[in-house]
């Protein structure tokens, strides 16, 4: 039997007060909609249909996935109308359609699988997920008759206080239905107060006809919908907790899990210690026994084992070998690769450069478009002058080189293995291996100059 997935993502998201489509708002670095897509992919559906309207082009561009069929809902006439639009893309008469909202990023694939298997096992016409949480508002409420049969869903704003007391089960907005159920969409009546066709109204239509409709309880945490910025924050908090708890289970120490933010695609090895106020983002891989000190942000990077990232350091799309130390206050910009046991220290910026094993740049340097060998010492205040105003040029520094402090290296230039560059040099020519490059005016000491000056000032 074919499975089709339909994700409803056309809504305006008015309550977000944003110029960006609601489903593109990010939770731990990923648009909300992507979470729904990733979850339904695990059901191996024949098709994934995403219904869009507000910001359709922006959504298509951001999601950029040829496996998705986007359907345009011409007018925002409610969730019932949104599914009706998706119906044209469902080309099977014996399929199961899984429908979910694009604004509920906490849903787990396992929960969808369970819904689908219950739906098929009990041969239901329509199944959906329910939950209870007395503290939440804004959700549809499930009505049952004396025999506990589901007879309808009524939206929060259309429910009386008495009904709220009687019926506590809420609608998660996640459904599995047989394709025949879709024929009911044409029969939905517009809700006169909101001007929308509610998908939830098919529950009553089907139940009245005697179709088998069932609700299955699921963890409240998973079905939190995001309609406001506050809910966006709450969902982020839940997801972050989920990610960090799993890492802690696998042997990672977090000093303060509430102030570390770790994206879902990150992996961290055993016995690594993560200090507070840290952001570990994208497809970052951190090895074993690493220490990440406060204020670090690490994005799409790969760290070996026993790497130390000291306070207030930014690492973007870079690689760091085993045993290296970076920071405090360092910045590795994209495409930098640091070897093993290297040291990149205070206020050092590195861009698109390869730094060899055991090399040290401990203070105040800019190294851009450089290829630097092993065991090189880069003195404080070294600058690779890589930009001539039009183009970028490469600096090559061989293994074992010693660069004295306050040196400018004007690229393109090559400093041979084992060479020394004296402090304060401006290197504009290649330096042969083992040579000393020195470029400074000779120092002159004027005897008793200060005493004579004082006498001059007095008279
Ligand atoms: C909906 C359900 C409610 C449920 C809740 C769970 C309805 C009528 N109500 O309410 O019972 O408890 O989800 O989160 O279905 N959308 C469209 N086209 C539209 C309108 C909405 O595609 O014309 C999309 C939205 O982008 C959103 C989803 O459908 O992703 C749900 O819409 P939303 O307005 O957030 O519905 P809720 O009020 O949350
Ligand atoms: Mg919603």
Mind explaining what this structure looks like?
With 459 residues, the protein is α/β, with parallel strands linked by helices. Helix content is 19%, strand content 30%. It has eight helices and 39 strands. A hairpin with a 5-residue loop joins strand 8 and strand 9. The mean pLDDT is 97.
Entry keywords:
alpha/beta, Spore Coat Polysaccharide Biosynthesis Protein SpsA, Chain A, UDP N-Acetylglucosamine Acyltransferase, domain 1, 16-stranded parallel β-sheet, nine-stranded parallel β-sheet, 8 helices, 39 strands, 19% helix, elongated, binds uridine-diphosphate-N-acetylglucosamine, binds magnesium ion
Number of helices: 8
Q: Identify the CATH class of the largest domain.
A: Alpha Beta
Roughly what fraction of the amino acids lie in strands?
A: 25-35%
Number of domains: 3
Helical content stands at: 10-25%
Computed CA radius of gyration, to the nearest angstrom: 31 Å
Number of strands: 39
Offer a concise description of the structure.
This protein is an alpha/beta fold and 459 residues long. The protein is built from eight helices and 39 strands.
Fold blueprint:
Elements lengths: L2 E6 L17 E2 L2 E2 H10 L5 E6 L3 H8 L4 E5 L6 H9 L8 E6 L7 H13 L4 E6 L9 E4 L5 E5 L6 H6 L3 E9 L22 H9 L3 E5 L11 H21 L3 E2 L5 E3 L4 E2 L4 E2 L3 E4 L3 E2 L4 E2 L4 E3 L2 E2 L4 E2 L4 E3 L2 E2 L4 E2 L4 E2 L4 E2 L4 E9 L2 E2 L4 E9 L1 E3 L4 E2 L4 E3 L9 E3 L4 E2 L4 E3 L2 E3 L4 E2 L4 E2 L8 E2 L11 H10 L1
Parallel strand pairs: 1-4, 1-6, 4-5, 7-11, 12-15, 13-16, 14-17, 15-18, 16-19, 17-20, 18-21, 19-22, 20-23, 21-24, 22-25, 23-26, 24-27, 25-27, 26-28, 27-29, 28-30, 29-31, 30-33, 31-34, 32-35, 33-36, 34-37, 35-38, 37-39
Antiparallel strand pairs: 2-3, 6-10, 7-10, 8-9
